Each structure stands twice: as C-alpha cells, then as structure tokens.
Amino acid sequence: MELAVEAAALGKRYGRTWALRDCALEVPAGRIAALVGPNGAGKTTLLHLVVGLLEPDAGEVRVFGREPRSALPDIGFVAQDTPLYRDFTAAELVTMGGKLNRRRWDAALARDRLAVLGIPPDKPVGKLSGGQRAQVALALALAKRPRLLLLDEPIASLDPLARREFMQTLMGAVAESGTTVLLSSHLLADLERSCDHLVVLQRSHVRLAGSVDELLAGHCTLTGPRAGSESIAGVAEVVRASHTERQSTLLVRRGAGPIDPLWTEHAVTLEDVVLGYLADAEIRVPASAWEVPA
Ligand SMILES: Nc1ncnc2c1ncn2[C@@H]1O[C@H](COP(=O)(O)OP(=O)(O)OP(=O)(O)O)[C@@H](O)[C@H]1O
User: Fold this and answer.
1) Domain identity same for 44 and 132
2) Are 136 and 34 in the same domain?
3) What are the boundaries of the signal sequence (predicted)?
4) pLDDT in tens, 7-34
5) Residue 37: CB within 6 Å of ligand 1?
6) Using an 8 Å Cβ cutoff, are 126 and 113 in contact?
C-alpha cells in the first residue's frame, strides 16, 4: 500500500507549548481523508508541516516517501480562508499560476471548471462571493494536478448549498485524477458523505485514525441496564458512557466475538464516533485561573 502522508513522532512547538506532539499518521494514497478536532487541536499545524511551510521540532513527515519540500511539485494546498490576491481576476490568477508552476499546469482544467460553475473570469476575486472564491482556490489547486491536495477548512464560511457544491466538485475532480486529499473541517455531516479516511486530533495528539468503513464497523452504541465498570463480552473499550438511573448508553469499540446479548446494539454515524472520542476534550480550567493577580 502506497502512503501519501506518513508521520512518525512528529512534533511542532511554539515556545514551550507543543502545537502537535508525538503524531504518528498514515494516509494511504487515493484516500479522501478528513482531519477533525476541536479549535487549537493542531490541524493547521499538521497541514503546514505536510506542505513544508513549517519545519518539525521532533520526528518527521514524508509525502510519497519524500521530504515535504522536495515533494512540493506534487502538493496542492488551499490555506484557511482561501487567501487569494483579491485585486486579480480569476483569469489572471490562472495565468499567474502557470508562470509559477511551469512544469505541470493545466490552465484549461481551471478555466473549464470555473466556466462550468459560472464564475466570471474577469471580475476581481475580492468581489466574488465566499463560495465562488473557494471554488477559484480549488480550481487553482487542481490545475497543479497534485498527487496530494491539502485543504484547510475550505468550506467553513460557505452556506449549506455552496458547501455541497464545493464538496461535489472536489469529489468529482479527485475521482477523475486519483488525487489523495487531506481536508480539515469541523463539519462532520459533510465529511461523512465524502471522506473515506479519518484522522481525529485532540490536544495536539492523534486520538483516532483509520478507514471510515473500519471505524464505523468497529464501533457501536449499546443500551442496556445500568452498568458499572465491569467488562462486557465482545467489547474492547468503552469510549464514552452516559447513565440514567436505570439505563446505560455506551459508545464502544468492538473486541473479538459477539457482544453480550444483554445489551442492544445500535449502528453509529461518523459524528457519533468523533464526538464520543472528543467528549472528554473539554479543558476544565480551574476557576482560580481566571482570577486577576493582586
Ligand atoms: N504562530 C503561532 N504562535 C504560537 N502559537 C501558535 C501559532 N500557531 C498555532 N499556535 C498554537 O498551536 C496550537 C494548534 O493550533 P492550530 O492552528 O494548529 O490548531 P487548529 O486545530 O487548526 O485550530 P482551529 O480549528 O481553531 O483552526 C494552538 O494552541 C495554537 O494556539
């Protein structure tokens, strides 16, 4: 199995604070991988390490087996808030991209994509809507014909229809080219429809990673009579538990063999799994931390 992204013991710190620590990660080539986690978990830091904008302080990251900087011609990157030169038109940005990427630049692909989406080529991109700007940024990234496409919260500011259009364009484009995608987002429902690989970051660490199908098949919710801390047949780990006086609801990772029939099993969504793992992510700040020193 070819790996598009591979990280081992990867770490990055700002001053004395680790933004990403001990990160071990494998994204197989051809996958559409979602990178999720609470604010400040380290998603942007990880993407910047993968594209070579940041240097690691520990460990290493490889893109198709190479240092990120030497893999750069193979990487397309759409940064958070899709920064574009706002005074330039889409047509000018396509021409400019060609000058910056002489080796491999598919201007026709970008122009066709923008024409299909009805995006005016002659209007400064600063005057386009947020959704149109996101589409221009995606078209420019795709014109590079990248083997790996990194997108940092590309759909955060889009309305639901524009989000769906953006994700459909992305899926269509990568299905044609076999491009691997690593996309950070907080919009779990959108990701469930389109991603086949998941990486969950929590407080600078990888909390969960793997193929979406395997993660869904490997977890379920159980309901049953109120439980204590005793182990349950067929359950490898209770990820999250909530209880009423009489009943317990557990998100569990399956182990070997069937689950104790005392419990009723329910299938889970990607959102159930992610939120279950992140549920203990609340950072409980002691009240004293808010006190103003005398
Ligand atoms: N340039 C910087 N200087 C100092 N600390 C930083 C810098 N960039 C990020 N950090 C810190 O590193 C941690 C990870 O930040 P990062 O932006 O990678 O998180 P994120 O998961 O992308 O967050 P969000 O979902 O809010 O975009 C945070 O604690 C953040 O405050």
Assistant:
1) yes
2) yes
3) none
4) 999 999 999 899 999 999 999 999 999 9
5) yes
6) no
Q: Model pTM?
A: 0.88
Q: What are phi and psi of 234, to 5 degrees?
A: 85, 0
Amino acid at the residue 144: K
Tell me the angle at which helices 90-100 and 107-116 cross, rounded to the nearest 10 degrees.
160
Complex confidence, ipTM: 0.96
Closest-CA residue, ligand 1 atom 2, reads 14
Its domain, for residue 198, covers 3-210
Residue 149 CB-half CA count within 13 A: 29
- State whether 148 and 266 are in the same domain: no
pLDDT band at 59 (very low <50, low <70, confident <90, very high): very high
- The answer, yes or no, to whether any atom of ligand 1 lies below 6 A from the CB of 47, is no
Q: Are 196 and 240 in the same domain?
A: no
- Boundary of a domain, candidates 210, 233, 259: 210
Q: Which residues contact 83 (CB under 8 A, 6 or more apart)?
A: none
> Domain end: 161, 180, 210, which one?
210
Q: Does the residue 291 lie in any domain?
A: no
Residue closest to 84 by CA, chosen among 42, 46, 119, 47: 119
Residues 6+ apart with CB under 8 A from 230: none
42 lines ligand 1 (CB under 6 A): yes
